[in-house]
Design goal:
Elements (H helix, E strand, L loop, with lengths): L9 H4 L1 E8 L3 H10 L6 E2 L7 E10 L3 H10 L5 E11 L4 E5 L5 H16 L13 E6 L8 E10 L2 E9 L2 E10 L7
């Protein structure tokens, strides 16, 4: 019983849930938010809308600086994404927006990021399929249509390191703790 980790232990308190994401500018965020109007379920807060590039899970807070270094070592990323479909993850009951044909530049950049994280042993080497999407709602029903009449055009160039706080019954809050040195300041 003594070797169990308790929530008040410094080892637990000094851990944070982190992920890398493409962070939309305000016009894109408003356009994504408008897509939520036709979606049922618990809608993502407008300020939380993003496209996850790599979920890092629970990490020691002391690794934030190392993760910022990884991000700064990456080549610049800038591409125009055409968010043109709504999708649904049935098991997780997540309604999302994404691309019918994922942007090749985005797929390549995410692969480089993943390789850098594996090299530094931040992520394990197992292969995961990257399905770029923006979560619109959880506990959702499947959207009634899948192709958007008017795509959301996103000039994506802001990559950030985000800490996820809350959850388990309380609202989730995302806090940017790092940003690509190449990012355009919004």
């Amino acid at each position: 019983m003594d070797d169990l980790i308790h929530p008040t232990d410094p080892e637990v308190q000094d851990r944070v849930r982190l992920f890398f994401a493409l962070w939309p500018d305000d016009p894109t965020r408003r356009a994504l938010q408008s897509l939520q109007q036709a979606i049922s379920g618990r809608r993502s807060l407008p300020e939380n809308l993003h496209l996850t590039l790599a979920f890092l899970g629970s990490q020691a807070r002391s690794r934030v600086e190392e993760l910022q270094d990884v991000l700064n070592a990456m080549p610049p990323f800038a591409s125009t994404l055409m968010i043109d479909v709504l999708g649904y993850f049935r098991g997780a009951r997540i309604a999302w927006a994404g691309m019918a044909q994922p942007d090749p530049a985005l797929m390549q950049w995410q692969g480089l990021l993943r390789a850098a994280l594996v090299e530094r042993q931040i992520l394990g080497p197992r292969l995961e399929t990257f399905n770029p999407h923006i979560t619109l709602a959880r506990d959702a029903e499947k959207p009634t249509h899948s192709v958007l009449a008017t795509p959301v055009v996103w000039k994506a160039d802001r990559i950030v390191l985000v800490e996820s706080q809350g959850g388990n019954g309380s609202p989730t809050v995302y806090r940017i703790v790092g940003e690509s040195a190449h990012a355009r300041q919004a």
